[in-house]
Amino acid sequence: MEKVYEFLKKCETYFIATADGDQPRVRPFGTVDIFENKLYIQTGKVKNVSKQIKDNPKIEICGVVDGSKWIRVEAVAVEDDRLEPKQHMLDAYPMLKGRYAAGDGNTQVFYLKDATATFYSFTDAPEVIKF
Q1: How high is the pLDDT of residue 17?
Q2: Concatenated DSSP letters for 48-114?
Q3: What long-range pairs does 27-35 form, CB within 8 A, spacing at least 24?
Q4: Overall average pLDDT of the 5-23 stretch
Q5: pLDDT tens digits, one per residue of 18-72
Q6: Taking a C-beta distance cutoff of 8 angstroms, is the pair 39, 5 a contact?
Q7: Could you give all domains of the chain from N- to C-terminal order, each with its CATH number?
Q8: CA distances for 115 relative to 18, 58, 71, angstroms
Q9: Which of 15, 25, 27, 36 minimizes the C-alpha distance to 78?
Q10: Residue 103 — pLDDT band, cuts 50, 70, 90?
Q11: Are 119 and 126 in contact (CB under 8 A)?
Q12: For the segment 67-90, what is each residue's pLDDT rounded down to a tens digit?
């Protein structure tokens, strides 16, 4: 899981795919954190992505580094409504504190469950990590 975290951090921006009924939706994300040995992402409850994950928590993440290495992560996004993981995420991304606060009723964090991450490149065989 640590390798997945490090790769997504290196990407800076990665993409999350959700389902909106029968229509796939993809959008950029930039937050990733490890809290209590779980990999977390963050969004706002007012966003469409939040509603889509609530309706169908299966997501996929894709990110690219250096144009030649990429990752795909299949997972179930599980909301963690405690203040502690929200605050941990915001402490890791202080620039978000102008728009989010741990107890604002909008900040939302999800940890990835039943995740399969596959690392790809043009030169190496794929590497799979499950967590």
Answers
A1: 98
A2: HHHHHHHH--EEEEEEEETTTEEEEEEEEEEE---HHHHHHHHHH-GGGGGT--TTSS-EEEEEEEE
A3: 29/61, 30/93, 31/89, 31/92, 31/93, 31/96, 32/5, 32/8, 33/5, 33/85, 33/88, 33/89, 33/92, 33/93, 33/109, 34/1, 34/2, 34/5, 35/84, 35/85, 35/88, 35/89, 35/111
A4: 97
A5: 999 999 999 999 999 999 999 999 999 999 999 999 999 999 999 999 999 999 9
A6: yes
A7: 2-130 (2.30.110.10)
A8: 15, 10, 12
A9: 36
A10: very high
A11: yes
A12: 999 999 999 999 999 999 999 999
Tokens of 66: 């250096």
Tokens 């389902």 belong to which residue? 19
Give the number of C-alpha atoms closer than 13 A to the C-alpha of residue 77, restricted to the C-beta side. Answer: 28
**Residue 59 tokens, joined:** 């997501």
When pLDDT is cut at 50, 70 and 90, the band that residue 122 belongs to is: very high
